[in-house]
Amino acid sequence: MQLTVYRDGEFWVGVAEEEADGRYKACRHVFGAEPHEAEVLEFINATLPRLFRRTASSVEAPIFTERGRINPKRLAREAAKEMERQGIRDLAKAALMAELEHRKKTRKVASREQKEADKARKREIAVQKAKAKHRGR
């Protein structure tokens, strides 16, 4: 699991990435003002597990092969490059977009069902009104 906290415009954003069972999940949390260490720890312990449980979609994780012994200078360069990197990885962006699309589809289906239910209810009320008008004759 990896948590990246960065400044996105005027807000501080945390993107948590998790890889399990060959699937890659990512979730985003807006902190607002610059978070203190205690706030980040509280987020990791309390909020983050709920966010990952709520995340329904994931993307296929790339398979990395174990490289043998890595040259210490290369390892130091890679670590420095990772520390300088701003924002989130492309894989995390793909996972976030997949989650966004999934939520969009479920919201669309739910709103369509709600509209159909409202339409059926209004139709039933209109039919009952029409029947009530003709009963007196």
Automatic annotation (TrEMBL):
It comes from the Bacteria. It holds the Pfam family DUF2992. Residues 110-126 have a biased composition (Basic and acidic residues). Residues 103-137 are annotated as: Disordered. This is DUF2992 family protein. It comes from Paenibacillus validus.
